[in-house]
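We recall that each integer encodes one residue's backbone shape. We quote one record:
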Amino acid sequence: MVLLYYLEIKMKQFLCLSVCLFCFSTAQAGVILSGGSVIDSSMGEYSASYQFGNMLDQSGLSNTYISGVTDFNTFTSSGVTHSGGDSNSWLSASGVYSGYVTFDLGAEYSIEDFVMWNGASGISASVNGFSLTTSLFSDFSVSTLVGNFSGHQSNYGATVYDMLNTTARYVRLDITGNFGNGCCTAIGDIAFNVNSVKSVPEPTSIILLSLGLVGMGFSRKNKTT
């Protein structure tokens, strides 16, 4: 009897701790994640100097972040700007103003926001309108439209776009055009606000196990009384 009562108390304490851990894990602030890699695009590159990697490598930013570690809100609100130089931006192929760019984030994440820095010295080349679509599959056989947005012509600071929250690995950026530039369309830098999807189920499993053990304790106590 005494042992069962002791176990019951310990299980209740463990359950409370598990609930606290679960609440902490699901309330974590999102981290900033780079766009990973470009795996497909209909827009091409103006030349090797203005490749897709320029909007993923932070080369034009006035300060840098650690992808997957740095707090998203803190970094994007800190006044970090893009240099505005073409050499640190992605420029689409000449005469191509609209189309899509597909990013592979490298793993599944809960994605909450998209951030973009304009970067071309010819600000009329900045993205005018765009949409974002996410998917767990590289062919987007099952996908979710997470937002339609308007771009900004003369803004080298961070512009954060609030997306419909989804769990995905792939993100397609569909660009509808620029602000009238006759050369191409340009982006300085992009990133995402994410949370890992792998850390959430573990506390849930602990809670379920704790509930089961507590129930067993009550059952045994009742049988012995």
In short: Residues 30-197 form a domain with the Jelly Rolls fold (CATH 2.60.120.260). Helices lie at 2-26, 72-76, 201-224. The CA atoms of residues 8 and 218 lie 7 Å apart. Confidence is low (pLDDT under 50) at residues 2-7, 14-27, 199-211.
